[in-house]
Predict the structure of MmeI-like target recognition domain-containing protein.
Amino acid sequence: MQRLIAAFPPNQEVIFPFIGGAELNTDPSHAHHRYVINFGERSEAECRQRWPDLMAIVEAKVKPERMQNNREGYRRYWWQYGEKRVELWKAIAPLSRILANSQVSTYLAFAFLPTRMVYAHTLNVFALTTYSAFCALQSQPHEIWARFFASSLGDGLRYTPSDCFETYPFPANWEQDAALEAAGKAYYEYRAALMQRSNAGLTKIYNRFHDLYDHDPEIEELRTLHTAMDRAVLDAYGWTDIPTACEFLLDYEIDEAEWGSKKKPYRYRWPDAVRDEVLARLLERNAQYAHAEQLVGMTAKKKGKVGGMADMFGGG
């Protein structure tokens, strides 16, 4: 990549950082380690004229496989990405950063990434830039929702936006909530600094976060800040009666005799009774939003206008 740009500086226009779920979860800075050629929707003639050496690389390494593809569009536009996600690029174009998480991971963990990157299919990308959005998604209420609706992969979580994000009943006006913004910012910045000091990515940090025997003051502080996020989210719903105290509890029942000396699946989380109460309230809130959405749709149909949840509840 460096040699290509040194030889012909305009090459940097279509060479992008490439990042996937592994980098997001393992690198302390969520740094990319790979680059890709991305011509976007440009024509073959334009690409050959402006970046001949890059087209030669793509023609040698991509075209032979594309010519064997059953999809006619893949063969016809062999120099372009098969799934360009044009809507995503348009949505994030004016943004300086986006929020992302790995589609499959042991822990539900969100982080900000720069724009002008190519994101692997192993990442979920959200056109969200605020700490209030991070707070809402990283909190226990959202994790409870996600674990209820997501499919599992071994001990891991398979987070699909259609099941876990689009259905989630966010608190009203969550994107403008100052308490969510403050709690999310405090937690995010502390976690980022802790990862740098520890030279540890998200997975290693959350291994310690959920470790029954890890009482390092820095990990304890991270737990305290997470509780503050949970409190802010619960208060945003108006659920001030829900306690936020966590315990180290097994994620699922195990056979002690068969388990042996393996590390037990403890998680630092709310007791089952609290978890179930929050889930019940979220399901009720979801039903209320769905009913309101239906009413808005009926009204819009009568008036010849289109409305939506954002108009009524400020998000979700």
Remarks:
- Confidence is low (pLDDT under 50) at residues 305-316.
- The first strand starts at residue 15 and ends at 19.
- The chain has 16 helices and eleven strands.
- The longest helix spans residues 272-303.
